[in-house]
Amino acid sequence: DHYFFYSNNGLQNQSVIFKQKGLEGEVVKFIDPNEINEDGTTSISIVGHSKDGKYVTVDRSDAGSDWSTFTIMEVESGKVLEEKLNWVKFSGASWYKDGFFYSRYPAPIEGVEYSATNEDHMVYYHKIGTSQEDDELIYRNEKNTNLYHWVTVTEDEEYLILYVASGTDGYECYFKELDGESEFRALFTGFANKSDVIDHVDGRFLVITDIDAPSKRLVSIDPMAIDETGWKEVVPEGEHLLESVSTGGGKLFLNYLEDACNRIYVANTDGSNISPIELPGSGSAGGLGGDRDEKTLFYTYTSFNYPSTVFRYDVDSDESQVHYRPETDFNPDDFISKQVKYKSKDGTMVNMFIVHKKDIELNGQNPTLLYGYGGFNISITPSFKISNIVFLEQGGVYAVANLRGGGEYGEEWHKAGMLLDKQNVFDDFISAADYLIEEGYTSKEMLAIEGRSNGGLLVGACMTQRPDLFKVAFPGVGVMDMLKYHEFTVGWGWIPEYGCADSSQVHFENLYSFSPYHNLEPGTDYPATMVTTADHDDRVVPAHSFKFAARLQECHVGDDPVIIRIDVNAGHGAGKPTGMVLDELADKWAFMFDNMGLTYKDIQ
Predict the structure, then answer these.
(1) Rounded CA gap, 368 and 443, in Å?
(2) Cβ count near 29 (within 10 Å)
(3) Which of 80, 338, 432, 588 is the most buried (most CB within 10 A)?
(4) Which fold has domain 334-481+518-596?
């Protein structure tokens, strides 16, 4: 009966959760994380709800850590139930009857909660009104503790779906009937592919899979006859990547990625009558999930000069209308966003977005920020950031390269930038910089590069391989020691993406060849660099940034500054208070402008 949504006035450290009964009901504040502590370092999200709508599962994370604590709240009264579920990580809450399934780790040793290796991820069922000690263990693999596990419940509550992953590559899928004492049965085994059960419809599983379909397809499978010969193809593999499929209102919603921009189509659950949902332009869109009897669904759309906007979609009329659009003080028509194709070192054509004011001159003098990621099958699509608008108003150019290793063009594009082919990612990024210079957008003296996490590795590798090409570098929360990354927290889960120095001489030599820390050379003039990290980052531990910054300062011989910026009571990025975000952005732009000799212009 209730809708829940997040809202922020732009300066609140954490977004406030509101509830509304129906579309016309009164909007009521439900949870305000800013009231929990003064520094705003506690983030709150709703990760599940009971079938009857009486309860929600609330996820609390402190200081940006990946560790979470789950609590349960009554929707009507806002009362928080007594039980707390601790040491939860990488988990949602899948409700069934009077409780929910979730994943957790054993309690870590005190003092090393944010650095020790996380092992033995388990699935439990928690019943309302009981303590965590009484939770029922649903699945555990004692033979291999370096696995992730997560579960979902089909909408009809007939099946529990279990996923098992060895890292960030593919995963296995198992299922069991919820009514009875049945054991899990394998639906997909091995870690070479990714297959997700969307729902159980008309006695068959709807599954999106990349098996024999690198750009993915949608099939239906009879749970009683799972052999591939019994599969029915619902939506065949197409020219473009089928990024995701959702259900709602008795319909299928197919979200395709076409040249790193989303296109959404609606269809019947048997794959018939596919038609497009009109979007405002070329950008990023997602959502449109809901129960079968829901007739009103929601989705978001954003682009580089289009603030993230919530649309309301009517299933019966197949029409959309704006539900919420934020107020912003800029004219989107002043800016242009374009896509270009450039040639990488080995001849591969790579896509890049370039955004700037319409009136800039291609004279090689425009301050330019080039952003990249290139890993883990993650797609970098257009998104709105108000701080980028400030930069663009100053005459800046913002560029985003869709590097190999990402997911923009399916699994083959991903594989072309992982393991022994990781150097392709760095070549793609360097070639993007060369393109921007050759086409007159900027020059070496006016070019900055930025990336975070795996993108921090990207920036670290490129600035060590081509220190002459960039004026400023922003490696954020990066993986900088490629020989030891797997020894901390969940680093072992990245081995399928990077390889492991301990596994073979071939992988050791490959990782050593681009490891940012190990490729810093004494007596080298490196770009002006601001390394960023946070003291509670338990995804990519801050030791990576600490040692990289120290070694960089030791090796650097130029006049440009090399500094490290360390957030306190913050983590990898999720849940960071708005105040901290604004402080870091101010420092970033100030560092870039100062080292490029730019003066901030007052824009009326």
Answers:
(1) 9
(2) 12
(3) 432
(4) Rossmann fold (3.40.50)
Q: What is the pLDDT of residue 604?
A: 66
**Cβ neighbours of residue 82 under 8 Å, at least 6 residues apart?**
none
Cα distances (Å, whole numbers) of residue 147 to 112, 237, 271, 498: 20, 30, 34, 17
Contact indicator for 19, 3 with CB cutoff of 8 Å: yes
Please confirm, yes or no, whether 453 is among the known catalytic residues.
Answer: yes
- Paired with 547 in beta bridges are none
Q: Tell me the CA distances in angstroms from 582 to 129, 518, 570, 574, one per residue in order.
A: 41, 32, 14, 14
- Encode pLDDT of 130-167 as tens digits: 999 999 999 999 999 999 999 999 999 999 999 999 98
C-alpha 233: how far from chain center:
29
232-235 and 195-201 strand pairing: unpaired
Question: Catalytic pick from 149, 414, 544, 572?
Answer: 572
Please, what is the Cα angle at 151 between 232 and 539, to 5 degrees?
120
Catalytic choice (68, 453, 515, 545): 453
What is the b/e burial string over 511-527, where b = at least 16 CB atoms within 10 angstroms of the residue's CB? beebbbbbbbeeeeebb
Bin 461: left if φ > 0, else alpha if -120 < ψ < 50, else beta. Answer: alpha
Active site residue 572: yes
The CA-CA-CA angle for residues 586, 433, 514, to 5°, reads: 90
* Residues with pLDDT less than 50, the chain: none
Cβ atoms within 10 Å of 32's Cβ, excluding its own: 14
